[in-house]
Amino acid sequence: MLSIESVDAYYGLFQALFGLSFSISPGETVALIGSNGAGKSTLLKTIVGAVRVRRDGVRLDGRDVGGDTEPQQLARGIALVPEGRRLFGSLTVLENLQLAARNGRAGPWTIPRLMQEFPVMKEFQHRPSTALSGGQQQLVAISRALVCNPNYLLCDEISLGLSPLAVNDVYGLLSRARGDGLAVVLVEQNVTRALAESGRFYCIQKGRVALSGKSADADHAAVAQAYFGM
Amino acid sequence: MLIALETLIGGLMLGALYALFGLGLSLSLGVMRMINIAHGDLIVLGAYLCSVVMQMFGIGPFLSLMLVVPLMFVIGMLLQSLLLNRVVGQGTLSPLLLTFGLSIVLQNFLQETFSADTRSLQAGDIALRGFDLGGVSIGLLPLLSTVVSVIIFAGTSWLINGSHLGRQARAVADDPATARLVGVDDRNFYALITGFILAVIAMAAVLYGIRTPFAPTSGPERLLYSFEAVVLGGLGNIWGTFIGGVVIGVAQLFGAKISSGLGPFFGHLVFLVALLARPEGLFRRIQR
Asked: Scanning every residue of chain B, which has its alpha carbon at the shortest distance from the alpha carbon of A75?
């Protein structure tokens, strides 16, 4: 169980989260929806330690882990796929994966397995990661987080700017990861897709939870109201 | 003709030493995007440390490296984690100011401790020995320093391009925030890199101290040669730094042949002309 307990988060003097609480159980998929600047990415950054919060702000399996660094959270099994993919341009695709695999935890996701499941990745493994299409880059970015063998995978806007076909590939990879029992936090602009892929959702507005519940029961009018704040 | 050849070979060997000076600067620029103004003074510090260790144990300069290299490694790690990590990634000005201050502190510390007199490291007769190759005389010591330099460059290049350490270095250089997400602790990694840089500096310092007398204020000149090698070769390109150092070395010796005081001037002149012709350096990140 990973949870955020009434957290305030700041960028310098600017406050991005206001007493926000959030939780996700092992194996669950939770969607975060909300407009740009609502605080979704900040929430993910808070969980991995890129934005610092108080010690008891982040709890993992009953332990306070807030304020720890990204490498520490990675070692505990929390990995973030950052917005915009952010592959290392000076490294080849394979090197991107090798770096993460070596620093991450041991587990079922290995580079050979990913190469086997995605033969297309095997073809471009020796290319610089910047020489790929957006969809291919996103697959590599998710793979880079997967080879760390996390229990909780946080995905920030993984379908942004991709063709519909590429989006399907990306979600295909994600559903395989979920099949292995990974818990996934999904930040997604496409509300319909987010609700279809998730078990529960949080709608975030101006750094606060405006609405939350089971995705299957989500009332679109209520979600739209929470989304736009009208 | 033979004199020209001899000058060329001498220049190549001197340049290999300059390249070794530049390697550390190239790494700190390439990985941390930081220019260390105290680089030259750290070279001089390394030379003094060797001198102290040699006196204490009555050993030769090369044997003293057994102690000085690990010592400099530790100094580097402490320097980075206690001081330099505060300014890495804070723009270009803060690291410049901090290391400029560090340079002044180091020079004064050395002057206070060792006085302003020049010193040199006595290597015994290895410094004087040489051999004749088809009429060209080659000194054993310059040859040795060239071999050491090439080995260190080859090793560093292999580390950067083919090892986990190198993948971390390139990832951190690309994007420190994302490197943290894949488990690279950038601050600790910087400390490791600076430790490595100072270990390389220790080796360069011995080869330098045997060859040339040094004083507490010799640092800035070393920095200048290092800097010219790095910029000439193209920023962030390791073998470029090697070639850059060699070009400066050759230019200096040919300049000194024309008039004995003109050596450094010719080095700077070649640097200036090369920069005007190719402002991005001779080799632009061909090699990662």
From this structure: B183
Name B193's Cβ contacts closer than 8 Å, sequence gap at least 6.
B27, B28, B31, B32, B80, B169
The amino acid at residue A193 is R
CATH no. for residue A195?
3.40.50.300
Q: Could you read off the pLDDT of A173-209 as tens digits, one per residue?
A: 899 889 888 999 999 988 999 999 999 999 999 999 9
User: Which tens digits make up the pLDDT trace of B49-83?
Assistant: 999 999 999 999 999 999 999 999 999 999 999 99
Which domain, by its residues, includes A79?
Answer: 2-228
Residues of A in contact with B179 (CB under 8 A): 88
Q: How far apart are CA B182 and CA B185, in angstroms?
A: 9
Please state the domain count of chain A.
1
Domain that residue B170 falls in: 2-277
- What residues in A contact B235, CB-CB < 8 Å? none
- CB-side exposure of A193: number of CA atoms within 13 Å? 15
> Has residue B283 been placed in a domain?
no
The closest of A111, A87, A80 to A184, measured between CA atoms, is A80
How far is the C-alpha of B168 from the C-alpha of A116, rounded, in Å?
25
Domain for residue B286, yes or no? no
Domain total of chain B: 1
The C-alpha angle B69, B9, B129, rounded to 5 degrees, equals 60
Nearest residue, CB atoms, B175 vs list A86, A144, A148: A86
CB contact under 8 A, A88 and B288: no
CATH number at residue B263: 1.10.3470
Rounded Cα distance, A49 and A65, in Å: 9
B178:A91 CB<8 A = no
Contact between residue A46 and residue B176 where contact means Cβ atoms under 8 Å apart = no
Q: pTM for the complete prediction? A: 0.90
Does residue A113 have a pLDDT over 70? yes
Q: Are A30 and A184 in contact (CB under 8 A)?
A: yes
**What pLDDT is attached to residue A203?**
94
Could you list the mean pLDDT of each consecutive 10-residue stretch along chain B, which spans 288 residues? 89 94 93 93 96 94 95 97 93 93 97 93 83 85 93 95 94 94 95 97 94 94 93 86 95 91 91 87 59
CA–CA min distance B209, chain A (Å): 37
Q: Mutation target for B interface from A73, A87, A88: give the one with most B CBs within 10 A.
A: A88
Nearest CA in chain A to B170: A90
Provide residues of B within 8 Å CB-CB of chain A.
Answer: 164, 167-168, 170-171, 173-175, 177-185, 288
